[in-house]
Write a structure and sequence with these properties.
Layout lengths: L15 H15 L13 H13 L5 H7 L5 H9 L5 H15 L27
Helix pairs in contact: 2-3
Amino acid sequence: MSVCSTQVKNTKEYGKTLASANIRLVDYLSEYQWIFKNKTKKFFDKAQLYTQGILVSQQRNIEQICDSLSGADYFQMQHFITESNWDARAVIDLTALKTNKTLPKQKLTGLIIDETGTVKQDDKSVGAG
């Protein structure tokens, strides 16, 4: 079994895949900047951190995201998600539009995103069999 050089520490290639993926993510998210601001504040930086945290965190909740990322403040992130007045409908609509353009043209196409950070255990958890 061979290992990709981007996964071997202490090589010139180590981390290049992740670095290029992060650059693509930042480029992709830049199209959403207009959604994450109001007349007095811009909070796109929190949206970027949250999105990056979803990708690297194991349980994908705010506490875990803040533990996974350097520079993420739990209280600021909590405020961003619960109190900031960004337009969630605009995020959903823009994401749906971009997804529709990206996915192949077929009769039935969909993208399912489950943002829950709860580990499903036994038959008492919602969504567990």
